[in-house]
Amino acid sequence: MTAMARTMAVRNMVVIVISAEPESDVSARLPRGSEVHENPRTEQPPAHCIALHCNIMSILNNKFERHLSQIEEAANDISSMRFSKPGIFTNSQVARPPITSLIRDTSPYERVLFSSTLNEEFTERPSALPAKSGLLGSLLDGNFVHQVQSTVKTAQLKGDVDVEMLLQGAEDLARIYPIPGLDERIEQLRSRYQDLFSSVALHEELVAAQRAQLDLQRGTTKGGLIVHKAKAPKATRDTSTKAEIQDEEIAIGQLEVRKFEMESEIRELDRRLTGPISKAF
């Protein structure tokens, strides 16, 4: 019920109360010697009705003032609110830019995800679904992926891997997904691998030469033939031979230790390169 409806209802109740009051009560409250006039235009309402009407009007005014104050506070709150600026999509919908401004060329890493099949002939339906390939399989050449997979399997079985091929694959990925400093890192790994490989080859040659020399000193050649040397004093010959054999064995042991250390470094380098690639495939 609205405020105006409540006001009209209260006024009707007042009229009903006034009309329902008996004339005897009205004449009883009038002073003696006064007469009740029949003309309704000159008749004055009772004092209690006027007071009741004033009370009702004051109550209504208070309610109206309270509602008006609430409306004014709400209006002030709304006017003081701060809304964010419209976003780019709102502006685009309002401004309606040409569609050509929204078209762009694909990036290199986006183009490698799609392949054209216009020139391929579809002869028959394959008997089985193709195996799912990883991200590297979609980015790199199929032959290269097959070589890497076979290299990874060989490395897992024999502990050896083609580091140069893995570095080449890393360079191919770096061209598609350029990362700052990756090219320098790959060159450092390639240089370190070449140094280790050359050092291992050199130490293997030294070990072979030392073994050949040791065999000669023991009296046998590489083919197992007996070598006759000029006779020397027995005591001097035995002493010098034992000393030389000990020195050669110590040198061979040191070279083998160095060779084992370098092979360990190469295996560690292979493990670092093989781990991420095996996970990618």
From TrEMBL:
<keyword id="KW-0539">Nucleus</keyword>
<dbReference type="GO" id="GO:0051301">
    <property type="term" value="P:cell division"/>
</dbReference>
<keyword id="KW-0206">Cytoskeleton</keyword>
<keyword id="KW-0493">Microtubule</keyword>
<dbReference type="GO" id="GO:0005876">
    <property type="term" value="C:spindle microtubule"/>
</dbReference>
<keyword id="KW-0995">Kinetochore</keyword>
<keyword id="KW-0498">Mitosis</keyword>
<dbReference type="Pfam" id="PF08657">
    <property type="entry name" value="DASH_Spc34"/>
</dbReference>
<dbReference type="GO" id="GO:0042729">
    <property type="term" value="C:DASH complex"/>
</dbReference>
<dbReference type="InterPro" id="IPR013966">
    <property type="entry name" value="Spc34"/>
</dbReference>
<keyword id="KW-0132">Cell division</keyword>
<keyword id="KW-0131">Cell cycle</keyword>
<keyword id="KW-0158">Chromosome</keyword>
<dbReference type="GO" id="GO:0008608">
    <property type="term" value="P:attachment of spindle microtubules to kinetochore"/>
</dbReference>
<keyword id="KW-0137">Centromere</keyword>
<keyword id="KW-0159">Chromosome partition</keyword>
<keyword id="KW-0175">Coiled coil</keyword>
<protein>
    <recommendedName>
        <fullName>DASH complex subunit SPC34</fullName>
    </recommendedName>
</protein>
<comment type="similarity">
    <text>Belongs to the DASH complex SPC34 family.</text>
</comment>
<keyword id="KW-0963">Cytoplasm</keyword>
